[in-house]
Amino acid sequence: MGEATRRTVLKGGLTATAVGALGFSSARSAAAATTPTIHSTAEWNARPASGAIVVENHKPTYIVVHHTVDPGNNTDYSLAHALQISRDIQNFHMDTRGWIDTGQQFTNSRGGFVTEGRHRSLEILRGGKQHVQGANVGNHNSECLGIENEGLYSTVDVPVALWNSLVQLIAYIAHQYGITPEFIKGHRDFNSTECCGQVLYDRLPELRTAVGQQLGLSVARLEAPEWPLLKPGDTGPQVMTAQRFLRAAGFGVPTDGVFGTATAAAVSALAAEHGLSRDSCTAARASDESGYLGSDVWPLIVPRGRSAAAWRSELSKE
Questions:
Q1: By the 8 A CB rule, do 24 and 183 touch?
Q2: Which pTM does this prediction carry?
Q3: Which tens digits make up the pLDDT trace of 118-161?
Q4: What is the 8-class DSSP label of residue 131?
Q5: Distance CA 60, CA 218 (A)
Q6: Contacts of 37 (CB under 8 A, 6+ apart)
Q7: pLDDT tens-place string over residues 284-296
């Protein structure tokens, strides 16, 4: 997938608009939003971008949480290390992904140091009216501001320093743009990826609450669960339901409730057919995610006639 594909309607039932996201007055929470220290691209000696930085003439709708996967759960919590991983991420995104610059707007280290990712992200955030387009959420980069959190959080929790800096950073971003905590999402809420790691993803409700407390806001209940993420090796009723839907879409998969090779191949083929991103984040370096069935695949296979929210609620009961 290239740099970004602008979409005015979000797939997978994420139907909130920018107007809906701007749910509070920034003046109301000015006293609660602490300005974090964010180390600029100049401070970590970033390479110049290889193309023009796109500045969207609107605010982002979503704040999206990622994990870097590589370098894993390092025990070097120094500022020097935080600046080095920013250089490493930029090199990977430019030299391997072929992007013009770092994909995410900001990076948060295990030591709690925050750096600017893509050039101009800090400048534009301070203005509070526009949005630097990144390359971290496939097909949704016009609407999303991404934060990479150093480490791999599939089975272990984040360090306290990282958590605290993440809460402070998101509260500041939300304050600047008038984004309510309900619009804090994980990468998997947009693409079929394990990112931001199961452990960190499970803490998103807690993160929304913590950010709300920083801003003096109550957090509204989400209208429905998110789409489930299914992976090769999974078993159960949700897998069987997905297999039935895939068969109805013309794929010759079994309906045994086992996410095996045939099911993964069908999902990969469907994703390729619809141009879905499978490498929009460094999470894909941990494992092959090409056969994952998540938020961007479900809307392609669920029968029509019911809303996305209704289907998500139904699937959550299986």
A1: no
A2: 0.90
A3: 999 999 999 999 999 999 999 999 999 999 999 999 999 999 99
A4: E
A5: 21
A6: 113, 114
A7: 566 789 899 999 9
